[in-house]
Amino acid sequence: MSTVVRLSGVTKEYAGGVRALDGVDLTIGRGELLAIAGPSGSGKSTLLHIVGTLDRPSAGTVEIAGFDVASLTDRRLSALRSQHIGFVFQAFHLVPGVSARDNVAEGLLYSGLPRARRRALAADALARVGLADRMKHRPHELSGGQKQRVAIARAVVGEPALLLADEPTGALDSASGEAVMELLHDLNREGATIAVITHDTEIAAGLPRQVRIRDGRVVADTARGKVAA
Amino acid sequence: MAPVSPRTEGASRTRLKAARLSPRDVLHVGSAGLRSRPVRVVLSALGIAIGIATMIAVVGISASSQAQLMRQLDALGTNMLVAKPGEGMFSGQEVKLPKDAPGMVGRIDGVQEVGATGDLKQSVRRTEKIPKDETGGIAVKAATERLLDVLRGKVAAGTWLNAANGRYPSVVLGHVAAERLGVTEPGQQVWIGDRYFTVVGVLGPMPLAPEIERSALVGWAAAQQLLSFDGHPTAVYERSTDASVRQVQKLLAPTVDPRNPQNVDVSDPSAALQAKAATEGALSTLLLGLGGIALLVGGVGVANTMIISVLERRHEIGLRRSLGATRGQIRIQFVAESLMLSGLGGLAGVGLGAAATGVYASSGGLPWVVPLWAVGGGFGATLVIGTVAGLYPAVRAARLSPTLALHAA
Ligand SMILES: Nc1ncnc2c1ncn2[C@@H]1O[C@H](COP(=O)(O)OP(=O)(O)O)[C@@H](O)[C@H]1O
Ligand SMILES: [Mg+2]
């Protein structure tokens, strides 16, 4: 099995002494769909930021798509994100006043692809999340669930090795939330590697693998058959 | 377990290199913030627009006035000299030029035309009932026929003195004199000495000889017959070829009065106009300073707007970093935004300044001149201001931690 993410002994201490992660070991293989679950404040977002190379650990090693993150400059980390990692946020973070298609195309802005190609791929990605008829709609003309699907299209338009979603259903009603989870399942069936962060145990239970963290430690991982204490 | 992916890790390892943004993409990300807040763009570009407009207008108006004077100088020529009696050796002593001075001057090499006037101790009045000493600042002079040509003057109405009208008492008025006497057209009569003279002509403006504008001119012979003129000229005007002006200038005094050349003052009336043109060209430092202050305040306004823009768009910055933007690309985005903001102000300022110059020029009948160097300099200044004002906010934006920037507000 090829490995997309390999964390070992990852610790993150924030200024002020908060230890958000404490010796986390985590391996994610290509094509996996997993939940990273835990109560609020347990360190899930911190973990996502480190896996997404937006932040560096205080100790431990992080390997993403075969690259040792510690050895990369900020420039090369940026390139790693643009080529290999897609993010979906609870708050969508769409650019206001810009059409759905252009929002998705922003996902390829830093890839070096020419503009026409970016727009063509954006149209494909929007169609793939079921929004072929909403290309020209601007964010304020879309429902919450549609906005999150636009954000997912933006995250996957570059076909990243890894898709990271931080509470993707957190701002949605349950019906739209289910539709978004269904979309993530579909994308996974098409080959995408996806990590979903959630504090919702029900959502976590619906995914093939669950990693539970509490107080910055992995307390259960169904892939390893470990069970919470 | 996973299906084979088209991206193998070995291949991607060698390709991990941040792509460059094309100029068009820089324009796109730089203008995104401006497009979403048009009112703020107008307000924050206003300071720069006012500063640039002031500077362009100051430079444009003075350049237009200068161009007008240069045009005038071109038309009037810079090859005319005037010889007048100077101060005598003993103060109060009256110095006279020899009667044959105009003829002598005409024989100098290079001299093409000579004219002369002689002051008369007379006053000109609308009627005989007005007291004699109310001159109204108008001088009465005898004039030779060639005078008008030498001065390149124009008759605004009527005719110049000539042999035909010289037979009866006739006078030509400078335009200031005509206005002061209330003479509006030829044919009216004015009182000089002990009789009425008929006004046969009124002259146009004489920038090279303002003293003629305030004179009533009588023919040389008529002055001698009717007004007891002694025939001594008090001003000899000559035109020479351009090449011989300096030489003529040296010879003029010794030629006019070979025995007492020190009694002769030689002057170049075009020099005064040239000096005036030079002062018109010198810019008003006060107004330029005010423009500079407006520009400075405008620059601070742009910097302020940019700092606010960076604060407001923390999420966007975090998002772009997560999409793979490098710090340099974030920096470029905000510097480009700042450049566009001040560039818009500069563009508007150049337009406003040029328009203001145009209004001033057309209302004063001047040529409309906006020097290219001023436009280029003004626009260059806005680009410098834009870069300086945008640099600090851009650096701050680039240094933002992506995780903090993404944190939901
Ligand atoms: N930038 C930060 N500075 C200081 N402490 C932080 C920062 N971000 C998170 N923390 C702390 O780290 C812990 C884990 O936070 P987080 O990873 O956001 O948890 P979760 O996403 O599971 O709710 C919390 O105690 C939080 O207060
Ligand atoms: Mg969180």
Summarize the structure.
The complex is a heterodimer of chains A (229) and B (409). By secondary structure, chain A is an alpha/beta fold. Chain A is built from seven helices and ten strands.
The secondary-structure class of chain B comes to alpha+beta
| C-alpha end-to-end distance of chain A | 29 Å
The 3D shape of chain A can be described as globular
What CATH architecture of chain A do you see? 3-Layer(aba) Sandwich
Keywords:
heterodimer; A: 229 residues; alpha/beta; Rossmann fold; six-stranded mixed β-sheet; 7 helices; B: 409 residues; alpha+beta; 2 domains; eleven-stranded mixed β-sheet; 15 helices; disordered N terminus; binds adenosine-5'-diphosphate; binds magnesium ion
Tell me what you see in this structure.
The complex is a heterodimer of chains A (229) and B (409). Chain A has 229 residues and is an alpha/beta fold. Chain A has one domain: P-loop containing nucleotide triphosphate hydrolases (Rossmann fold), CATH 3.40.50. Chain A has seven helices and ten strands. In chain A, helix 3 crosses helix 4 and helix 4 packs across helix 5. Chain B is α+β, with helices and mostly antiparallel strands and 409 residues long. The radius of gyration of chain B is 36 Å and the shape is elongated. Chain B starts with 8 loop residues before the first helix and ends with a helix. In chain B, helix 3 packs across helix 13. Chain B folds into two domains: 178 residues, no CATH class; 192 residues, no CATH class. The longest helix of chain B is centred in the first third of the chain and has 39 residues. Chain B is 54% helix and 14% strand. Chains A and B meet through helix 2 of A and helix 1, helix 2, helix 12, helix 13 and helix 15 of B. Adenosine-5'-diphosphate binds next to helix 1 of chain A.
